[in-house]
Amino acid sequence: MKWIPNFNSSNSLRVIFVIAVFILLFLSSIAYKHNQDLNESSKLVMHTYEINIQLERLMSAIKDAETGQRGYIITRNARFLTPYIYSRDKVNTSFITLKKLTADNPQQQKNLQNLFKLITQRFVSFENCLKYSDPKTYDKRKLDNHMFGGRILMENIRFKVDEMNDIEKTFLKKRLKIYDSEISLSPLFSISLFLVALCFILLAYRQISRDFERLKIFNKRLLISTGLIAESESIGNFSTWQWDLDTDKIDYSDNQYRLLGHEPNSFVPNKATLLKFVHPEDKETFAKYMDAIVEKKYLPFVYYKIVRPDYEVRYFKTTGKIVTDQQGSKILLGINFDITDEHLLNIELQERNKELEKSNKELASFNHVASHDLQEPLRKIQTFISRVSDADKAVMSDSAKNYITKIESSAKRMRVLIDDLLLFSRTNTTKKEFIKMNLNELLDNAESELAEIIEEKRAVIKTNKLPKLAVIPYQIEQLFINLIGNSLKYSQPEIDPEISITSEKVNSSDYPEILEQSIKKFHKITFTDNGMGFDPQFKQTIFILFQRLHSKTDYPGTGIGLAICKKIVENHKGHIIADSTLGKGSIFTVFLPD
Length: 594
Known about the structure:
Elements lengths: L3 H72 L6 H20 L4 H28 L6 H97 L1 E7 L4 E4 L1 H6 L11 H7 L5 H9 L1 H4 L1 E10 L5 E12 L5 E9 L1 H47 L3 H5 L3 H32 L5 E4 H11 L1 H6 L3 E4 L4 E4 L1 H17 L8 E10 L13 E9 L31 H11 L3 E7 L3 E9 L1
Parallel strand pairs: 7-9
Antiparallel strand pairs: 1-2, 1-5, 3-4, 4-5, 6-8, 9-10, 10-12, 11-12
Helix pairs in contact: 1-2, 1-3, 1-4, 2-3, 3-4, 9-11, 11-15, 12-14, 14-15
């Protein structure tokens, strides 16, 4: 069943809704920006107005000082000096205010400094006029010069004040022009966006109408799907249930009733009725798990038995998880599995495993005891043969001597075979205790064990640094002894044996066909020799117990050595492979997990 169209439609509605909301938000931001621009324009107007007022106050203070000075000069009445005396404070106050108002305008700041210099010069002129108009220091020429100079300074002050007013007006005019251009485009732009948003809303309405029709179809499909799920539960022998922890209401699927031995909806499901079906042996444990659900927020796998109305005992496995629905209610979703068949099969399998384990123990015991018991008569045979002196042999017939020689040879072979069997048995049955070891030390021990034959054959063993690994020390040492001994045994006549041992770390993914992929890293240890080699078609069979590629008269051995190597490597969860070319030597590769 395809549900994709419903999801696509839902996504389309979301996109349309987001676009419409974005447009509305954009319109709101434009309105907010226009309000901000209007507010800014108002501030600019007020700013220009305040500067004009302060400049007017500045001019008014200077004019008052000038009028008071003239009145005093004409009348010599000190009351005319009152405006002059307070005019400095007024000028300073206006200047400070103007300096704050023009702080963001370097040009106006410069004009204000020039204006302050002119005003300062004008007040100096006032003082000189008062000085030379006084009867005690009267000087008509100097008085006329300062009066004339004061008039020129007043003209410059007026000019500078007008210049500052013009700058403020020009700045205000530019800002208002920009604002007018923006405000003129915004209605058209806003209407366009509104119409676009309206189109999207209409499109969403159309899509909702279509989805309503689709919803009817999907509801019909959902009913079919629900029926299929019910059939799946019946076929798969499982059931589902829901427990609303807020209302303590439990709902069962139809198959849950059937698994309990009832018809669907034949009783009201609740905690008490569920416990009624649980076997008395499991009731207490199951009740504890149910009580701990709220704290743990999930139900772990619970294994228990139930008793059906017909007294048939069935084995169940139950798990669940708490979820929160859209209304915020906590609901435990659970699933039950009827594992009766699997349980009975596991019991049967366990019984078979026990029998197999018992059989293996008996076999190992038989192998061990038999090997030890065989040694006693063999020891006696070798002892009696050794007591046959050369004098006794001299009086024997040739056939008797031949028989004695064959008996002695067979006894030796039997001794080697029993020792190898004991070694193979110990590899299978002894305790596998892993210890972190330097493999170089174990290799040195192996070479010491083989020192006599190495010296006899003048063998050269080359090795690079081996890793430190957690291994069963005596088994890895035996592995090295067997592999090096194998190369020495099958060396070519008249050629000194050369054995190269190398090690490198590799990824298991590089050898997917032979290595366990759950272990990421392995150490690859390679034994290469220049011996006689073997036919590559036997590279798998040489690891089989008692498998020999040569006659026992040509090369001594029991065919157990490489089988022991394979078992040792398997005990370490590794792998061993062999490759060779006749007359060119052999390569044995051991993979040990890191």
